[in-house]
TrEMBL record:
Lineage of source species: Eukaryota, Metazoa, Ecdysozoa, Arthropoda, Hexapoda
A Gene Ontology BP annotation from the UniProt entry: vesicle-mediated transport
InterPro entries: Sec1-like, Sec1-like_sf
Organism expressing this protein natively: Zophobas morio
Entry's family note: Belongs to the STXBP/unc-18/SEC1 family.
The name this protein goes by in its record: Uncharacterized protein
Pfam families with a match to the protein in the record: Sec1 (PF00995)
Length: 158
């Protein structure tokens, strides 16, 4: 799919979405998944979203988050942006070592994090040895609450 055709599709989807929150969530997904978006393209989307009555504060936070993610991915370390990736199956005692991990997030948890952990466990599972992960968090936000949190974080940046 060409860039022009891709942009037109996203614009069409944004224009067809009924609620401003839906338009913003759609754009955020597109923006996060885009490896690079030029300033002129971003300004075009921001203008369209603003015209549609969207609060642009979440975009400010996502821009900062993407810059941190880019810095973290350019280094060879497994640490970045306040997080550290570890092999969750290294901790354990005796014969139970490495079979079960408990991951608890202080703050907002989400389905994507959980699914990434499930996929990770599948990669680490060998024949006859199952790996289990129990996932929890102190809060779970629905789509509207998540957008509100991004908006508050974006307002702190500006």
């Amino acid at each position: 799919m060409t860039k022009l055709k891709h942009d037109k599709t996203i614009y069409d989807l944004i224009s067809r979405a009924k609620h401003p929150e839906d338009k913003m969530r759609l754009f955020i997904i597109f923006f996060i998944c885009s490896p690079h978006m030029g300033d002129s393209d971003l300004k075009r989307y921001e203008a369209a979203l603003s015209e549609a009555g969207c609060d642009l504060s979440p975009i400010h936070y996502i821009k900062r988050w993407k810059s941190y993610a880019k810095m973290a991915s350019s280094s060879n370390h497994l640490e970045g942006a306040g997080t550290k990736t570890v092999n969750v199956f290294q901790i354990g005692v005796g014969s139970n070592r490495g079979r079960h991990a408990i991951v608890f997030v202080v703050g907002g948890g989400n389905y994507i994090e959980y699914q990434n952990l499930v996929d990770y466990a599948k990669q680490k599972t060998s024949a006859g040895s199952t790996k289990r992960i129990t996932y929890g968090s102190s809060t779970l936000a629905n789509a509207k609450q998540f957008l509100k949190q991004l908006s508050l974080l974006g307002q702190e940046i500006v």
